[in-house]
Design brief:
Layout: H1 2-10, H2 19-45, H3 59-95, H4 110-115, H5 123-135
């Protein structure tokens, strides 16, 4: 029985925020997700991903289009990662873990979550990650620490 109490103490409280606040965060996340999906759809429909070598008249045209296409892919990949973070935050709202730093377990201030509702880390922990990354001692990506 004492073991059960320890396990309960180690887990975060069911929710850091009221139902109304969680609904506000859910709406912020849903709006951002909708924007990203619309942007990706528009990019695909605009044809910015298609590369037809037959339309390229010389190597300079081909190089220019290739650079533009690579930039488009990088932006889409960044948006894909952000979508995954948003989905992760939405899942944490459902489990009652939303608002807690994944690195330290501490509460993330509401102000930070209002600006970046998908953030996983407190500012303090994120700064530690950045310092480790810059020094070469850390992880290559936030996803690698889980």
């Amino acid at each position: 029985m004492a073991k059960d109490l320890k396990q309960e103490d180690a887990s975060p409280p069911h929710s850091l925020f009221s139902k109304e606040e969680l609904e506000e965060f859910r709406q912020l996340l849903d709006v951002e997700k909708s924007k990203l999906l619309l942007k990706a759809k528009q990019t695909v429909e605009a044809g910015n991903i298609h590369l037809d070598k037959n339309e390229m008249y010389d190597e300079v045209d081909l190089a220019s289009v290739t650079v533009e296409q690579n930039l488009t892919f990088k932006l889409l990949d960044r948006d894909r990662k952000l979508l995954a973070e948003i989905d992760h935050a939405l899942a944490k709202i459902e489990t009652g873990e939303y608002g807690f730093c994944e690195g330290t377990g501490e509460a993330i201030p509401k102000r930070r979550l209002l600006v970046r509702p998908w953030c996983k880390y407190s500012v303090k922990f994120k700064e530690q990650l950045e310092r480790r990354k810059k020094s070469g001692r850390g992880v290559a990506d936030d996803e690698d620490i889980r």
